[in-house]
Amino acid sequence: DAGITQSPRHKVTETGTPVTLRCHQTENHRYMYWYRQDPGHGLRLIHYSYGVKDTDKGEVSDGYSVSRSKTEDFLLTLESATSSQTSVYFCAISSGPRQPYNSPLHFGNGTRLTVT
Amino acid sequence: AQKVTQAQTEISVVEKEDVTLDCVYETRDTTYYLFWYKQPPSGELVFLIRRNSFDEQNEISGRYSWNFQKSTSSFNFTITASQVVDSAVYFCALSTQGGSEKLVFGKGTKLTVNP
User: Fold this and answer.
1) How many beta-carbon contacts under 8 Å exist across A and B?
2) Who among B6, B32, B102 is closest to A58 (CB)?
3) What percentage of chain B carries pLDDT values higher than 70?
């Protein structure tokens, strides 16, 4: 168990409302990631973080923002949720301290978000 | 840019059959890593294997084996004598030294093993 907790596990929200998903790790790893999983698309990177207050965009970052004020927490915010953001969201950490590209990712159990 | 293609969307086999899941990747980097992940029906993502671009040796772990061929840019995964518990979605993924810290996934292959 890589010590990653995502909350909430399930959420239903209405279009236009803000939503924040939380990822908490107990491993003190530097790199953290948010992916979304959709049928026919696999897993796509939304944002990632390489340290406290250091974040960067992934391939599907529009409509999402992130924050990392502490090593252990990485928050994903949908400022104004849309139906296209209905998805399963996975947080992941890289076990590689310096060269994460050669390290496997360890994933949380996912958050199923439905935007009605 | 990096890309991973898993052309097989879904595969269905009968228990004890052998099955191969295909993975083709694209990158211009010479240093890269390939990964396979398993996602069972319960939904969690489980890391299976990592292979770097300088090591083309095939790997076997029990009923699982992986065939890495740089000449065809492929990293295929074979399950021998499949079992119902192998039913899952399998993802191939790629990360490169020049691709920063990003792991790029294929779209996945859903394997169903019928009793």
Assistant:
1) 58
2) B102
3) 97
B111/B101 Cα distance (integer angstroms): 29
Segment A22-41 shows an average pLDDT of 92
Quote the CA–CA distance of B17 and B50 in Å, as a whole number: 25
Q: Which residue has the tokens 């394997």?
A: B111
CA–CA separation, A9 and B64 (whole Å): 32
- How many residues in total does chain A contain? 116
Residues A41, B107 contacting (CB under 8 angstroms): yes
CB contact under 8 A, A106 and B47: yes
**DSSP 8-state class, residue A53:** T
Looking at the complex, report in whole angstroms how far the Cα of residue A43 sits from the nearest Cα belonging to chain B.
6
Q: Mutating which of B33, B95, B100 best tests the A interface, going by the most A Cβ atoms within 10 A?
A: B95
Give the Cα separation of A114 and A96 in Å (integer): 33
Strand ranges for B9-96 from DSSP E? 10-14, 19-21, 24-26, 32-39, 46-52, 59-61, 64-69, 74-79, 88-96
Q: What is the pLDDT of residue B55?
A: 86
B contacts of A41 (beta carbons < 8 Å): 107
| pLDDT of res. A27 | 84
Q: Write phi, then psi, for A16 (nearest 5 degrees).
A: 95, -10
Q: What is the mean pLDDT of the segment spanning A95-107? A: 75
CB contact under 8 A, B99 and A101: yes
**Which pLDDT does position A97 carry in this prediction?**
60
